[in-house]
Amino acid sequence: MNEQQRALSQHWELYQEALQASNLEQIQRVVAGFARRMGFHNHGYAQRSTAAHDGYRYFHDFDPEWAQQYKTLSSPQAEKSDPRIIQARQWYPAVSWNSLGRYSYEKSEPFMRQAVRRRLQYTGEFNIHGGITVPIRAPGIEWGFMSLTLGHRVAIEEFSPLLLSATYFTNCLQAALARMAAESAPHAPDLSVRETEVLRWSALGKTSWEISAILRISEATVNFHVKRVAAKLGVKGRRAAVARAIALDAIRL
Q1: Domain ranges of the chain
Q2: Which of 7, 81, 96, 184 is buried most deeply by CB count within 10 Å?
Q3: Model's pTM, two decimal places?
Q4: Does domain 193-247 fall into CATH 1.10.10.10?
């Protein structure tokens, strides 16, 4: 077994705990345990989802002063300037870093290198002097990252053996969060083939009379299906039914 294999196997039970987590409390507990096992003092997680019901989520165990910046990461300004978000959006790999402004992946644009160094030096003012940041890339995620940090300065090379384990753990963590998000997401009710047809033509702007001609059914039958679909979707009216169905991906135009 080589060094990388040993590094992964040392934390196998924590990977499994992350994968099997069923709520955010369990997620936070296993992340804290992993951070301690890896020798870090603090951790932080942030993610913006493309799903409206999920939105922006974060958790951490930092002191209140540094914790404030997690609240503002979803702002337009932060999304354009925060190196961690840029790192995730531009598909950079996991990086190790310290508050001297050094980091392990420097094959980026000059503006990115300057932004990273300024940010890393700034962390030192809050007694955060080194760590690892793992970008999160997954379907339905605009950007995300997990950071594991130290309260004392070390050479970035000392983090190298930990990058693989941190990356795999973050992937397990994200798989659990994606599963939890899917389980909590609103689901479309079962619609019959005819109901789906009526709803789709309604979404395309057709009147009940036009739909009746297209589907070769009576106008009263079309209206019956529209009312039935609206009831299933928990809304009132044709427009609301169409909007709700599109939001739930019950119909596609």
Answers
A1: 3-184, 193-247
A2: 96
A3: 0.72
A4: yes
**CA-to-CA separations, 113 to 73, 81, 119, 153, 200, in angstroms, rounded:** 19, 12, 10, 20, 49
Long-range CB contact pairs, 65-74, < 8 A, 24+: 65/126, 66/123, 66/126, 66/128, 70/44, 70/46, 73/46, 74/48
- Report the alpha-carbon angle 93-98-101, nearest 5: 90
Which residues on neighbouring strands pair with residue 132, listed in sequence order?
Answer: 96, 148
What pLDDT tens digit does each residue of the chain (253 aa) get? 455 556 556 678 889 988 899 898 999 999 999 999 999 999 999 999 876 556 888 999 999 989 988 988 888 888 888 889 988 888 888 999 999 888 887 665 666 677 788 888 889 899 999 999 999 988 888 899 999 999 998 898 898 889 989 999 999 999 998 888 777 766 778 888 999 999 999 999 999 999 999 999 999 999 999 999 999 888 899 999 888 888 777 887 6
Which residues partner with 103 through β-bridges? 97
For 143, list phi and psi in degrees, rounded to 5: -165, 160
- Alpha carbon distance 15, 119 (integer Å): 30
Question: How far is CA 208 from each of CA 4, 195, 204, 215, 225, rounded to the nearest angstrom?
Answer: 65, 13, 12, 10, 10
> Do 149 and 128 meet the contact criterion of CB atoms below 8 Å apart?
yes
Considering the domain 3-184, what is its CATH architecture?
2-Layer Sandwich (3.30)
Which two tokens mark 169? 């753990």
At which residue do the structure tokens 């870093």 appear? 97
C-alpha 98/C-alpha 226 separation (Å) is 60
